[in-house]
Write a structure and sequence with these properties.
CATH class of the largest domain: Mainly Beta
Shape: globular
Structural class: alpha+beta
Order of helices and strands: HEEEEEEEEEHEHHHHHHHHH
Number of strands: 10
Number of helices: 11
CATH architecture of the largest domain: Sandwich
CATH topology of the largest domain: Jelly Rolls
Amino acid sequence: MESIIDVINKRLLNIDKIGFGRHTFTITLGNEFFNAKVGLLHDTHCHSCFEIHYVAKGRILMKIGQERLEINEGGFVIIKPHAYHTTFIDSEINNTLRCSFTFSYSLRKRKKNEDVFARQDAAIKNIIGMKSFLYGKSEKIYESLLNIHDEIESDSIFSRKNIQASFTRIFIEIFRSTQKNLHKQTPAKKTLYEKRNYIIDSYFTENYMNSEAGIKELSEITCISIRQLERVMLKIYGCSFREKLTSIRIEQAKHLLLSTQISVEKISQQTGFFNLTYFYRVFKKKTGLTPGKFRINSIDP
């Protein structure tokens, strides 16, 4: 039987759902959960779920959409699904330590005569309803992250329960902190380039499930020639149109494999791959695993 650390090293570990009344959070840990090496530069990308970055030591710089953000020690940022972002390491600071994980969210209907916790609901809605990101600061979070790291390394009895309890404390601290430091994005006049980039971003998030999505259609929408649009894509994302479209489709497919019991064939269709054989080939090329093995290896033993 595989240990928790074996599962994380393979790729992803799902933590059982954490609930706050009607609100449920499902957390996923990757092999960069506790990472001392942020890397020189991460390609511009987005996820189909929420992502949290916490800086335990040092400092990281991020670009989220068109906004630049500096996150210092004790700070964290929550990034909304499908918000494009890039992470930079601050070369002037050594020994940077960043922790990151993703989570999905669901809200069930209120039961008859169920108690209403207005302040709790408001704090959670601040996060779920944010425009693209929220940031805050709390040094208390690091202690819980260290405890999670130690439990993963030790893989002792009741490790998972202790990990769940630590994540519950982390989310409570995040809710409290963001209530105090809610990031208010003031509307600013967008430049022509910002408007263009927003249209391109929106095209991918709104059309990745469409098998007919293509650069010709985006060229017509943006009134930019295909040749020029490829240059723009390379400047914004560091890759071609086809590579970016494939990347977001694979991210969504991974999310569906982990969070649902939908068949692989239906997932391929819902993410724009209407040729199942092609979906298998691309997915394995990007992840090193077939969709089925990816799902199995991500289930806690």
